[in-house]
Every structure is written in structure tokens, then in C-alpha cells.
Amino acid sequence: MNLKRNERALRVIRMLRGREQRQHKKIDILCRDIVGAHGEFIQKIAMLSFVLRFQESLLGISDLTSILDSAAGFIRENLNAAGVAIFLVEPKGFDIHFSNSTSEFAVEKGHFETWFSSQVVQEISRSSRICTLEQMLQMGLQANPAMLKHITAAAVPLGKMGKGIGFILLYRQAEKPFTAEEFGNISAAAPGLRIAMQKHHAVIENSIQS
């Protein structure tokens, strides 16, 4: 009799322990989900803050050169040791708005003019995603291999998919690769620059028509 009671007690204890372990696992999963969601929320807030400050830097600027100066300057100041060049698609090719890097490393505008062809600029501009240096080389980028060993670079298209108006070229020393967070911030801010440029073009067209 006592043996049966002990067996029943052991079964109850095992059942309670198993239930407790399952509850602990559920609590651990829930805690990890909460921590992960909190981290994602913080990242989204940081991205929104970056975009808002970027757009504020463009407010009240009327001419295209100043718009590009302000955009490139803001990006350079907020991406550690990065150089910035804004490529614009033109009817007869492309134009480059160059921003000198504050880092020890910089690429001169002349390099970009020889590295990029109109076809490569068009292809990058029409892309629906950020283009890495390797992808740009596959598109036909002609760069000095010796120099490429020392840099990391990526292009963030300004236009919507299939409608290429240009892109933001980011570059810096190879030992400082760009992070996913940095790419996310620039990608989120790019539409603001596109809108500012479109508004400028609209003002120019209206003034010509009037």
C-alpha cells in the first residue's frame, strides 16, 4: 500500500516538474521575444530620428547644389569616416556631386569619372536595392584593383525601382565596413533627398513656363 502511494507521489512530482520545466521554457522564449522586440523598436526609433534630422537639414534650401551639399554633409557627419558622392543621371550621361571625406582616406572625383560609365550609373540608379562594391564590379565598374583593396563602398539608389535618377555612393577604408544599421538609415533617408530634388525641378519648370 505504501509502495503504491509512493509511486503515485513520484508520478505527481514528475508531472509537476515537467510542467514547471515547460513553463520555464515558455517564460524564457517570451523574455527573449520581448528583448528582441525592444531592440528592434530602439533601432526603428533611431532610424526615424536619423531620417527626421536628415530632412530637417534640407528644409528651406532652394537650389540643387545646396541641397546636394547639405545632404552629403549630413551623411558624412553621421557615418563615421565615410566619403560621399552623389551621382545624378543626366540626359547625356551623368554628373557627380563630390563631398570630401573627413577621414584619412579619400577618393578624388576624377577616379569616379573614369570608374563609372553612363551604363553602369543607369543600372545602379534603376536598382531596387543597395549595390555592394562587388555587385557594381559585376555591372561593369572599371576601378583600379590596387585601390579597391583599400576601400569598401556601396551605392544607395535615389529613385524608385526602374526609375533611375541617381544614387548615393558611400565609401571608406576597407577595415571599416558599413553596418546594416548604416545602410538602413541611408536607405530610409534617400527618398527625402529625391523629393527635395523633385521639388527643385518643379520650381524650375514652373518658373520657365511662367
| Helical/strand content category | alpha+beta
Average the pLDDT over all residues and give the rounded result. Answer: 79
Number of strands: 5
Low-confidence stretches: none
- Summed up, the helix count is 7
Any overview of this molecule?
The protein is elongated. Helices cover 61% and strands 15% of the residues. It has 210 residues and is an alpha+beta fold. Strand 1 and strand 2 form a beta hairpin.
Write the layout of secondary structure elements.
Blueprint: H1 2-58, H2 64-78, E1 83-90, E2 93-99, H3 109-115, H4 118-125, E3 131-132, H5 133-139, H6 145-148, E4 151-157, E5 166-173, H7 180-209
Antiparallel strand pairs: 1-2, 1-5, 3-4, 4-5
What is the gist of this entry?
With 210 residues, the chain is α+β, with helices and mostly antiparallel strands. The chain is built from 7 helices and 5 strands; from the N terminus they run ααββααβααββα.
List keywords for this structure.
alpha+beta; 210 residues; single chain; 5-stranded antiparallel beta sheet
